[in-house]
Amino acid sequence: MKAIVQSRYGSPGLLEFRDVDRPSPGAGEVLVRVHAAGVDPGVWHLTTGQPYLLRLLGFGLRRPKQPVRGLDFAGTVEETGDGVTRFRPGDEVFGGCAGSFAELAVADQDLVAAKPARLSFEQAASVLVSGGTALQALRDAGRVQPGQRVLVIGAAGGVGSFAVQLAKAFGAHVTGLCSTAKTDLVRALGAGHVLDYTREDFTTDRYDLIIDTAGLRSLTRLRRALTPRGTLVIVGGEGGRWLGGIQRVLFAALLNPLVRHRLRGLVARERGADLETLRELIEAGKLTPVLDRTYPLADAAAAIGHLHAGRAAGKVVLLP
Q1: Where would I find the beta strands (DSSP E) of 235-319?
Q2: Is 114 exposed, middle or buried (0-12, 13-18, 19+ CB in 10 A)?
Q3: Sheet holding 262-265, edge to edge
Q4: Which of 25, 36, 191, 225 could make an S-S bridge to 203, C-beta 3.0–4.6 Å?
Q5: What would the pLDDT profile of 192-228 be if each residue is shown by its tens digit?
């Protein structure tokens, strides 16, 4: 089968589109024919090996441990391993696995769910990583409550576009911060108020919860926009080669015991229970993935580059 393979760290241009052995499902696993695979910022980090801290965390010191990139997917079940009772060949599914940038991929059944009927394969392939991150940021780290005022920074991005919709679904009053070209999209997602960061200062107002998915704004500036006992959740932020913006999370953890604000850094994890929650919200019409564009699987490097450049409004998806 064809797959996007990485033998060493470097620019996305080093990724190879070539033949690899067909995988087989083990106990509790399903083999999926991939119809679409989502691209998330983590793909760029794992491709380049930056920040270097990632290598020390077990992803491979000198070269990637997992040679095939990708995590999000949507497709049809080809084969099931021993002990799998929830799925059978032909089922349309979505979820996550290591190595989704391929024609076939093996996934643990606990990270797979029935594809929502109202979504295309392309839309469904964009859900788990970004949607799960947004869900954990709002519900778990942010403890969002109905009636709260929520600011989503990077509201048109992969995580941000889910966060705006989820915050509204949870009954919050949502403000989205984005660039000029993306204000109409964020408004269409359900934000009651949209700020253009190139023209407006978000610190002139106060929010109960801020979800920061983009940039490297200082904690001082972010806290200026919080209510006296508001919560800040740091989800994203690009930085240097060594820490890649993780230093803000570390500073927040050190400062948190000394201030009235709740300062949280989120390290999201893919969870089957979250996938089911997202599926239910999608089926109820409260959540719809937003696609920026699709690329053929062979053009994975271009897709990753487009996303990393910050040009995407919504999700980028590969089509095997």
Answers
A1: 262-265, 291-296, 315-319
A2: middle
A3: 193-196, 173-178, 149-153, 207-212, 226-234, 262-265
A4: 225
A5: 999 999 999 999 999 999 999 988 899 999 999 999 9
Segments of 171-225 assigned E as strands: 173-178, 193-196, 207-212
Q: What is the pTM of this model?
A: 0.95
Q: Please, what's the largest Cα pairwise distance for the chain?
A: 58
Structure tokens at 124: 């469904």
Tokens matching residue 137: 């940021």
Encode pLDDT of 81-118 as tens digits: 999 999 999 999 999 999 999 999 999 999 999 999 99
End-to-end Cα separation, the chain, in angstroms: 10
